[in-house]
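Entry 12.
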Amino acid sequence: MFKALKPALVAAFVCLANLSFAWNDVGHQLVADLAYRRLPVKMRQKAVALLKQLPTYERDIASRMPANLTPEQQDEFIFAMCSTWPDIIRSPNHPRNRTDHHAVWHYCDLGIVDPRDPIDWETTVPKFGNIKDPDNAVDAIEHNMEILKGTAPDPEKAIALCWILHIIGDIHQPLHCATMYSKALPQGDYGGSGFLLADTDNTSRTEKLHSIWDGMLGSRQSFAEILKMRDILEGCPCYNRQYFASELRKKTYLSWIREGHAICKREVYLLGSKEPLKGINYKQRDAGVKAPELPKNYLKRGDLVASRQASVASFRLADTLRTVLK
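Predicted 3D structure (tokens):
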């Protein structure tokens, strides 16, 4: 299904042989922790001091801190854990849900038309520039950067920093950048949430394509295990800054979205390959249509794509924060 891998990618597979990455809590913490390590010490300290002003810091962050961490690791944990705060407040019962939860800030979906079931649909780009009241990830980053640069109270800046940590991680999960349209899904597949495959653990059940990419093998590592994952990535020569020189020349948030959109076509839906990814929708599932299984080696290749995206995200996150943590 895949072309022969370049030597650099083979080396990456060796580095990551027993490792998988995701954009669940583990993936967000990994991206944030890698970025933390790429910041100067004074900027780390400034960021952590600000994050401790989060209105629900004790409830949402301090209460989750593992025991027996060194002071340096405690700061590292705070920074990493705060990247998950926008997901923590998704719960309707959370006291900050009504004021600070913004579902549309997590993604910016550009359209893809399924060539196997084409629909007469004109490719459009979301409207950008509404920084005061964002309705997509691009404008949401700008919105929160403006708060950090301005004179808002520290608790508001802490919330903005949490969102920046989170959104930049989110938009490097390719399915936060695209939705596929077809006659079967004329409203789109909602970033893969309406594209169903056989569950990898129980083929009699279905699993969302988005969930597969959000949780690549569904790992639930402890913070200590996340630090080990970070060490593996940092130690792999294929994941240093020089290796991502072309990606890091892209400076705009929209260019990052377009990059994720292209990855979605190529690596997620496998469009252009001999065997594009096959799935079913909810209507087909309810009618008794059996969901197809993932192609052989899909998850292995997905792990490699995810690890690259996590690394790129961490460099871009660190570079972004350097402009506001002076």
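Annotation: The first helix runs from residue 7 to 15. The domain at 7-322 is CATH 1.10.575.10 (P1 Nuclease).
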